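This part of the workshop introduces the protein records we will be handling. Backbone structure tokens are a discrete shorthand for how the chain folds in space. Once this layout is familiar, the rest of the handout is easier to follow. The record below serves as our worked example for the rest of this section.
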Amino acid sequence: LATSFSCMGAYVVLYGYSVGVSQMGVFFIVYSLCLLGTRPLFGSMADRFGAPRVLLVGIAFFAASYVAFAAADNLATFIIVAAVGRWRCDGVGFVFGPDRAFTGLDLGMLIGPIIGGMVIEAATPVLGSQPEAYSLMWLAMLVPSIGASLIVLRWNLQRR
């Protein structure tokens, strides 16, 4: 999930500018404000219902935010993406703690922008425009979400 998440930080402003949205700072303001509610909420939900169940909800929001990113083309859409994206369980590492997530988080943050950039660079000439290439990159970043969902589902089944 960190692979996909790192692309948000690396490319959201460039993507916004490529589709003509000049006030991309608003995205980060909304994203940060939503953080104030999601961290305590998902932390208490993980304590109450267990991390595996909460992670499935978070991954679903994570995937939904990237599908929405692929369609974002105005400030209102980016604000919706910021709000939906913040409900993605605040990252797997915050649920599990640093002792279990450090290496995966760091590796994902390292390779995510590299993979995202490669997708954008390869897709731009094929699709004919940079905004379309960014849209494809957001959809490609769903692959880690699908993998994480399968891992968490298996984890849920094993716990039963």
Observations:
- The mean pLDDT is 85.
